[in-house]
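Hello again,

I reread your note about wanting to compare the complex against the isolated chains. To keep things tidy I'm splitting this into two emails, and this first one only covers the full assembly. Below are the input lines as submitted, including protein chains and any nucleic acid or small-molecule components. They are followed by the predicted structure of everything together. The single-chain runs will come separately.
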Amino acid sequence: MSAITLHNVVKKYGAVQVVHGVDLDIAEGEFVVLLGPSGCGKTTTLRMVAGLEDVSGGTLSIGGQVVNDVAPKDRGVAMVFQNYALYPHMSVRQNMEFALRPMKLGKAEMDRRIAQTAGILGLDALLERRPAQLSGGQRQRVAMGRAMVRTPKVFLFDEPLSNLDAKLRTQVRWEIGKLHQRLGTTVLYVTHDQVEAMTLADKIVIMRDGHVEQVGTPEEVYAAPKSTFVATFIGSPSMNMIETRATGGRLVADGLSIPVPTRFGDRVKDGQEVTLGIRPIEIQRVAENAPGAMAARVEVTEYLGNEALLDLRVGSHDLMAEVPADQRAAPGETVHVRLNETALHLFDTRSGRSLAQ
Amino acid sequence: MNKLSTRQTILIYLALGVVLIVFLMPIYLIASSSLKPSPIMFQKPPAFLFAPTFEHYQDLFAMRPFGKFILNSLIVALGSTAFSLTIGSLAAYAISRIRHKRMNDVAFWILSMRMFPPIAVVVPYYIIFKTAGLLDTPLALIIVYSTANIPLTVWLMKGFFDEVPIALEEAAAVDGYGLLETFLRVTLPLAAPGLAVSAVFCFIFSWNEFLFALMLTGSEAQTATVAVMSFWSSDAVQWGRIMAGSFIILIPGVIFVLTCQRWLVRGLTMGSVK
Amino acid sequence: MAYIRKRNRRIFLIFLLPAILVLFLTTIYPMIYAGYLSFRSYDLAKLFVPRVFVGWANYREILSSSEFLHSLVVTFKLMAMTLSVQLVLGVGIALLVVQKLPGMPLARTLLMIPMMISPVIVGLVWLFLYFPELGYLNYFLSLAGIDAIPWISSTNWALWAIAIADIWQWTPFVMMGTAAALQSLSPEPYEAAMIDGNSRWDVFTRVTLPQLKPVLVSLMFLRAIDAFKIYDIIFVLTKGGPGDSTEVLSMFIYRQSFTFWRMGVGAAASFVSLVIIVVLITLFFKSLNRDQTA
Ligand SMILES: Nc1ncnc2c1ncn2[C@@H]1O[C@H](COP(=O)(O)OP(=O)(O)OP(=O)(O)O)[C@@H](O)[C@H]1O
Ligand SMILES: [Mg+2]
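Full-complex prediction:
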């Protein structure tokens, strides 16, 4: 059974529509990440699931029950807010108690749950402190604890790591992943950080301007992006995009001509404008006379330790290549590179959609 | 601003000294006169050192039931404060949270209610309370003072509620609390300083009020301000007692200023100063 | 971001209702009632029982009565006297107490005390100071070589006596508002002016005052609204006298209603005062909105 289902969910603020018919199916126990650039409607979608915003159209179900008109408190969800939203006038223990009280569990059970959650999150020593007396990371943990004690059907997270420094972020990210493995609760998680998405998600939902661009496992969205938007959004450094025209079975652009890989079959029509995508790591340095070798001038070199990034100029196009550090070249040098044919992504330039099967 | 020279600094302090003397002298006069024996009340030059006497205070409480009038003042002030705080903070919360362009108009309408001249409605009040049998009762004053205190509370509390992050209320909503519970358990505790400030403003206003107290009460529900004034209307002016009574009446206001001055700006300037 | 589900909006409106209801019953209704009374005449035998409908007679009477028009003139005269002095003094003192010198915060606090004193007490203490023969004010003035002034017993001085008491109580208000505004001004224009070598007076009139103006305008409207309602201090000091030299509109209404028991005339005058105050309140809110957009 699905834990959460969104069917053609729409959100309007007055005349402005910010979420356009989102369809999404989240299975029990799945970790789903909503990913997209700022302002694309991630938070809005999450808040509709929480019941903090009215759904303007479509249906939203949790646990098989349509909840469009169900109050937040009756949805069985728990939410971790971006700024944690800890009650400043209550201690850590009281914050958790406050979240439990509506469940009417009895004092003993409440204490047991608080102790258990505190144990899991390492909050035992902090229970009597007020939020103001905690560090950012500790507050984050308390916010998760407050959500966890209620053993909800669904966890909702809105950019829970965005207020932490880089090192802490990595650590808490890892802890959230572990926690999910341990508790197995369904999670809907909003972020604009693709590393979080890739490392945590069972399924990534990539949003853009209130639309869902693609839904898939981290591997799928990385290896088989369905649109130029997803292709450039996922992966770092981002995928090189070259606008070409299909001419006689070849993709031609200034300074570059590549045969259309056979796996695209007859989906590439002669004369079609095709955007060619290639990840920097799939551009290799080769000898001048190697098959498919292209001359490129090195503009900038960035040394990163194990590898190096080369800003290349091919014809009138800029390409970024990621090569082993010992293969780097000095700016101004001319090198020869080859695009890994099996890793080519082709998109229809007009629609931005992938031409892969 | 530029650095001040020594001469400028001295001039500033001199001017400030004059200002302070002018603005504090009447208060000193009330305090000292209330302790001065009657014969030297108007002695010139004024006696700064004298053997203080508590006879005026004793007279005050002995000759007339001044204690009762103080009690009346307290009942009226506390009653109106409690009533205004309850109704006013609920309204302020609504105004703070409903996001609608009309809400500003509602807020201004409420605020304007405290700006009308009391004298213009004294006669209607008199007739209404007479009909209702409420003349000369504390209840009448509690109701009347609330007309000024509710707008003030709404005005002040709206500012405090605006500062409580909505995410906290959303967290409570997700945790399973309804609106009223969220308000009582999350928002109101966080706006507690506002509640305290509003309470003090309401209290002082009611405590100090004179016109309605004069018109709507008789011997039973008379408040301290009216009682003090009555020492003047009798044949001989009993300055000692007037000053003793005045001193008692001004104590709450002075304590308020000394402890909460930073809120005075907000409470009195009605948004003129941000 | 707002979390307002439709249901919540209804609950919020329920929260708002008691306040609106109470204010309607305790403010709007009495005003309407005053309007009703203003079209009635009264019988001295049955005080407070409105009798016959008399149409606009009460209004015609007050608008053609020199007493009423005189009370309006006195009201605005007193307003002009107190507001102008409070403005100048208040801004002047504010400039003193915002200096970054030791003791200034304390001075600011102490200067706020008069505002929180009951107006009756203010009236009484100034009466004590003005008191004929005995009062200390004339004694202090005599030390400065000034002849005794018949503060409350002369038609020339009584209005000033009232104005001084009001100025004493409310100059701190202008001071407090101005000081708060001054402290929120950005220091940069001053630094620029200092570098440019402008004189202090230039800086004050060209840089400070223009920035203060919106605040001062709003503060003055608030003072005007209050000055229009002034009652307690006059009641204590002069009761409108000597003659009718200090009979402001409030006093006129009071005397018509409770000395001559002409409730209808009093109500008509009350209604005129409500109209004037509505204008002042509207101007005040306009002044607030203007400096919000500016
Ligand atoms: N109350 C509102 N009224 C009108 N528009 C709104 C409102 N709240 C959000 N929006 C708009 O809806 C769009 C989506 O906002 P949302 O907060 O969901 O973005 P987001 O994907 O979470 O972005 P971010 O990564 O910056 O948090 C934005 O364009 C925003 O301006
Ligand atoms: Mg967001």
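For quick reference: Chain C is about 70% helix and 0% strand.

B.
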